[in-house]
Design brief:
22% helix, 3-stranded antiparallel sheet, disordered N terminus, 294 residues, 7 helices, alpha+beta, 24% strand, 8-stranded mixed sheet, globular
Length: 294
């Protein structure tokens, strides 16, 4: 793949552009971006270089950032159209498109509860599932609170050829109702009307790279030719395969990090590996709308 101005020196080595450094964070995916200020508009060349790095590495960690909500929105919109959040996650104040991911209660104190700890792809229940998520660390615990990513392209490619052929014609129904029920959450009819069940290919073709990936996660409820019991057994089997350690990158957050990841080929989850009853973990999340699946 052409890196649009980001030159790769050798596998695992630092890559350097004229405008910022790209430093791989693992052997399989993820890179840190050093030397770009996200609070300022990107010129065309820099924006294209960031996008090329995004497609290559799937997870980008921009270091040493401090963004207001409006600055995060402005950065996000340079790469696409902001996606609305589910009714229960709509941001408050004047920024409904910025979702505050937090373990704090209404009293501002840690609750001990960490959300989004199951593997998922953001907005997979939408007709145009999310292209990317941008997550800005506002307050971090002293240790832990990692975010983990599973490469669904590598997981798919590692399956036997016969299995890949069998799965390629299948459909999967992604359901907000299903995922809420699985974590014991109640929901209103308004929430269901806002996020009805959506059918997608089980094997999804990336619209920009052409690579194939399994499209699963906690929102995946049914395979279109199987019962719920059989569907969930197969979905769990495939998810277990794709989330093996050698397909996973674990991000250890640093103060000032902004993460941008590709929902079209990854699953992610928060790891509650910190004392969530004692330490706050607060993030600001924006999502970019994708395109219909194929």
């Amino acid at each position: 793949m052409n890196d649009a101005g980001v030159k790769q020196e050798s596998k695992g080595a630092a890559a350097v552009s004229a405008r910022f450094d790209v430093r791989p964070l693992s052997e399989t995916m993820a890179a840190e971006i050093v030397g770009v200020d996200l609070s300022q508009p990107l010129d065309g060349q820099t924006r294209d270089a960031v996008l090329a790095a995004f497609l290559r590495y799937k997870v980008l960690a921009f270091r040493n950032q401090k963004l207001s909500k409006s600055e995060q929105i402005a950065f996000s919109e340079q790469f696409g159209t902001l996606e609305r959040h589910a009714k229960g996650n709509i941001g408050n104040d004047d920024y409904p498109l910025v979702h505050t991911v937090t373990n704090l209660g209404a009293d501002g104190q840690p609750t001990g509860v960490v959300k989004s700890t199951r593997w998922h792809s953001d907005k997979s229940f939408r007709p145009e599932p999310s292209m990317a998520t941008i997550l800005h660390a506002v307050t971090l615990p002293p240790d832990g609170g990692d975010t983990c990513f599973a490469d669904m392209q590598s997981g798919f490619e590692a399956l036997p050829e016969s299995e890949k052929t069998n799965l390629s014609g299948m459909k999967v129904i992604h359901s907000w109702q299903h995922s809420r029920e699985n974590v014991g959450k109640s929901f209103t009819q308004e929430e269901l009307d806002d996020a009805p069940d959506m059918t997608h290919p089980l094997v999804r073709v990336h619209p920009e790279t052409g690579e194939r990936a399994l499209f699963l996660g906690m929102h995946a409820a049914f395979l279109d030719d199987r019962s719920k019991e059989d569907s969930q057994a197969k979905i769990e089997e495939l998810e277990d395969h794709c989330t093996q350690e050698h397909f996973v990158y674990r991000h250890h957050w640093q103060e000032g990090d902004v993460l941008m990841w590709d929902n079209r080929c990854l699953l992610h989850r928060a790891d509650p590996n910190f004392d969530a009853a004692k330490f706050p973990r607060v993030m600001h999340r924006t999502c970019l709308r994708g395109t219909p699946t194929s």
